[in-house]
Design goal:
Strand content: under 5%
Number of helices: 6
Number of strands: 2
Shape: flat
Oligomer: single chain
Strand order of the largest sheet: 1-2
Order of helices and strands: HHEEHHHH
């Protein structure tokens, strides 16, 4: 989160000994490195070189380092639905909150409850809500494309996309067009516009709330 939220005099003096602030900064740097290793591990699982039959050796060794942590979240069944796995995002979000708290304590020697709430909101938006909204909008954009661009494999693509966003389309229809007959193209376009508005309004609201909590003196 942007440090400019905390430059209003709230941390104008240090209330912690320098050695403790140094430890906090060091731990924040370690968590940052660990988060990077998780990202590398995720990317390597997506990449398979031609002729590669076994797991990438680097991915294998990184798994020994980061998988024990990721497994804590993989045991939460609600984070895994069909082909969507939110485990890495939530795991990285938790690390981001801890890292930000340590980094700010290392810089200012003090942390407040308001600061923690601001960090939680900012991280929740950056690692969960915003990516999900972008993912839904991207799928709806592709779905809208296939409403206009017909081809021999169009229906197969539409069925694949609807397996992910069919519930979203049904929800928008019941919310906006309850009891009305509309065509497929109109429903998809309306859903895309609706989620774009939700994204913009949510982003503005999160900024206001983060700024509010960051200025609290307790």
């Amino acid at each position: 989160m942007d440090d400019t939220y905390y430059n209003g005099g709230l941390f104008s003096f240090s209330s912690a000994p320098p050695w403790l602030m140094g430890i906090a900064s060091f731990l924040a740097a370690l968590i940052s490195l660990y988060s990077l290793l998780i990202w590398v591990r995720i990317v390597l699982t997506w990449i398979r070189l031609p002729g590669q039959s076994a797991q990438n050796p680097l991915s294998h060794y990184l798994g020994k380092i980061v998988d024990p942590y990721l497994n804590w979240f993989r045991n939460i069944s609600s984070l895994r639905r069909s082909n969507i796995d939110l485990t890495p995002l939530i795991a990285l979000a938790v690390l981001s909150v801890v890292q930000s708290i340590l980094r700010l304590f290392g810089s200012y020697g003090k942390i407040t409850v308001g600061m923690v709430f601001a960090l939680l909101l900012s991280t929740l938006w950056s690692f969960l809500i915003s990516p999900i909204l972008w993912f839904v909008m991207a799928l709806l954009g592709v779905r809208l494309y296939f409403c206009y661009k017909r081809g021999p494999n169009t229906m197969a693509y539409i069925k694949m996309i609807d397996s992910l966003v069919g519930g979203v389309l049904n929800w928008v229809q019941s919310l906006i067009y309850r009891g009305k007959a509309i065509n497929d193209r109109q429903l998809v376009l309306t859903s895309l516009i609706f989620f774009a508005v939700v994204y913009l309004s949510s982003s503005a609201l999160i900024r206001v709330l983060v700024a509010f909590f960051a200025k609290l003196s307790f």
